[in-house]
Amino acid sequence: MSGKKYQKVAVIGLGNVGNAVAYGLVNQGLCNEVLLINRNKQKAIGIALDLRQSIEYMSRNMRVWAGDFDECGDADIAIFCVGGAAPKSCDRNDLLVGACEMVKPLVEKLMASGFSGHIIVVTNPVDSIAYYIWKLSGLPASHVIGTGTALDSARLKCFLSEISHVDPRSIMACSLGEHGNSQFIPWGAAFIAGTRIEDLVKRNPEMFDMPKGDFTYAEMSAHLLEKVKKAGWKIATLTGYTCYGVASAALAIARSILRDECSVIPCSVYLDGQYKLQDVFTSTPVAINANGVQDIFELSLTDDELNEFHESVSVIRSSIDKCKKYL
To answer: Which domains does the chain have, with CATH numbers?
Structure first.
């Protein structure tokens, strides 16, 4: 091997999400080496073989193999995809105890390897588990990032695209707070072509193809928020799980780190004074580069939106308090 720096990513947990993340790393050619770690080692070996044998039709050659935590010391990123099935309650916080019990020994093994890279957390409830992993790992807060509302924001833009017929990548909008039922949408920061969506709806309502025809802006915004909140549960009801959306969010974060892109993504990070919030992981737009979290953007919120944010964070804090019992 030459002296050139090789980029290595470890995927921890190979359920539907971990499998989709592993495939995305290979399909997008994001790194040189992909290490797959799973409780069932035989499954990891099978997935590694399948991915390795697909290299012929991918964009680059890569090393893909099934291994263990003692091989993580030189990894640039570890992506935690372990977790249980979607809860029937439609509340991700019901997964908390099981997630803490699963994650703790894995983080301990990861850090024992000498790992000093970045951790991307997909495991739900992602905000509190990101906090928990940060505490367990001892890494700088800037090196631990939860996917948070990156997925919810993508869903919001998808739904706005469906009613406005504008490419979702040309829409600026996001969801903030908990990746869960208490999240909210700061509509003052939602734009199409530099124009606030609220203004577009009022001036040009025919641009928006709402299901029931005539509608008010308040009705549209409430409808979309509820649709975003329920999107994952709808998919899980139809298929038994969700994987591609959240895997894409994790891959976007990984890509921005590995390629030093400085992309702005709404995701769950440690706040230390932003929005008058401290010692909590929650979602807001963040610039991500090779150093992890470079900048945290504090949006200008109305008093009502700030109250919604604080109410959402109170839900996360309650979950974090329960996590602390497992530290």
So the answer is: 8-146 (3.40.50.720)
